[in-house]
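ENTRY TYPE: paired fold submission
RECORD: A
CONTENT: sequence, then structure tokens
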Amino acid sequence: MKKIFAFLIVILATVNLYSQGIRTSVYDAPVVGVKLGLNHSTFRYSDPNLKSLPHELFIRPNVGVFFELHLNQNFSLAPELFLYNRGHLTKYIYETDYNVTYQVKSRYFTFRMPFCYRVNFYNAENVKPFLVLAPSCNLLLGGNINLTQPNLPISNVDIAIGNANMRRHDFSLFLGGGSQFYIDCGSFFLVTKVEIGYNIGLTNSFSNMEIEDVSKSENINAYNITGVRKIHNVEFNITLGIPLQLIRDACWNADMNYKKRNVRTQRDDSLF
């Protein structure tokens, strides 16, 4: 416990060691970095019968890269590209006797354009709360559908997701908030964000083949294709970024220090 307490003290001391000028430059510089997160994904149906299906906890990972550009002290744009895992897990009883498990694991390549509003508190210079609004375009890469229904004629189905199962692209809107802070790592800074939010599916994820009745859903005991199906996610994300301006300044300072040392060395050698 003492070691943990000492470790926390060291972190807090490091985070609050620097002047207002350094903090301002860290938060105003363009930032490039990586984004890591987890999401709980569910399907939302308009069909009254499907709305009653339970949504089991279904945690999926996502990872990507981002570039953040500050428009002023409060607003910024942070376009990001990442691999986004979504899907659905439900367990229910069919006709009072059969336990059915239906699981969809889908993978997407996602482009998201977050608009961030950062709140600047004068008495909390290294803690910057923010709100984010981010339209997203999601391109389906593939995935897997698994249906288990013991004691029924089709007891187990496991197929790869294709054009017959899900729409190739869809759009969504992420709404969230969190806090930003930075950590000094000696030769560079890490600008870190912790955010939580909700990703709202805006378009129908049923494939055209399902809607037009060209391809039957594998989950034939659960539903017929009626209405719409949208993918929603509760997300928790962490971003780690490096301010580009400070990297440039650090490299410039290192180069100037090297040149100064080289000049002094040449002067010293000329004395002999």
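RECORD: B
CONTENT: sequence, then structure tokens
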Amino acid sequence: MTVKVSKPAINVREELADLKKPTGIAGQAMLRAETPQEQFQLIGAGRRNLIINGDFQVTQRGDYSSNTGVSQNTYYIDRWKHLVQVVTAQIRRDNGVVIDGKPMSVFRMEATSSATGRMGIRQTVEARGTRCPIEDGPATLSVWMRSTNPNACLLFYQYSGGGYIGHKPYTGRGEWQKLSLTVEASPSALTHSAVSLELNFGIHTAANGNVSITSGDYIEIAQPQLEVGKVATPFEHRSYGEELALCQRYYVHYDLASYQRLAATSYCDINNRTQVDISLPVPLRSYVSAGHTNLTISGQAVNGVNLTQTGSNGNILTGNLTCPGTPLTVGTIYQIYTIGAGNFYVNGEI
């Protein structure tokens, strides 16, 4: 005998809803995602922060743990360029400042004069080939900020076609405040020396104009981050070695002890110069300039550095070093070293 059993249809969605399992906004977004790529972006997997040296730990040019006077458009802490217009200012970096219950590294700039001017810290973001790195969709800039001036803010500038595409004022009244700004970059020609974006953290107007600043006014920032997407995720901590390598694409600094060699040997082809090849730790973005203190050619002071970038991946500088007069002998091998503590640096900043 055949027995037929019928069973009512089940609405899977209703059954799942009956479970009443809390998922929250983030969980619902994960469930709605249609592709693994969307889920990848939602959880912020992989390297996220387009800002280099966001925790201010790499400082090849100096220590800056105590107040240091700064100049306009000058780099001090790696990858950070300083804005000082009309007013004068000093900077400092502090480690272990507790913000939101967590120890963080903090950059501080304080005015040392009163004027109608502007001041702050900026980072330029290199173009990705011929495109802005956030051209494919929205991106979010976030930072912890504290200031005594009501004009402190975030300012987002896109070169070659975008202009000022975002501004977020600080309203924390002297207390730490987490600021977040989401923008979309328009397609651009990127003709401005490979610079795509400029991220400003400072005291100025929404269009980078002058404001009233009083001596003692300061701005502090911690954990600046630029990432693809509409939501600011927790700050990405990278190892010191990885952050240093990212910085050395733009600037390399060799601190040399007395009589420490920069290049083991160099060949004299003219009586006042030697030919050298200097290997870099990572490929340089583009050779701009080089300089030194106390560098010598076997004791003869170096007064000229003439180098070009070469190598299959741009990690070698080749050229010559010169010294005053004609103290060298053609065909002789010389060593390049310092007398007294010195340094040699290579600049490839945008």
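NOTES ON RECORD B: The chain has a mean pLDDT of 91. Residues 111 and 216 are 5 Å apart (CA to CA).
STATUS: closed
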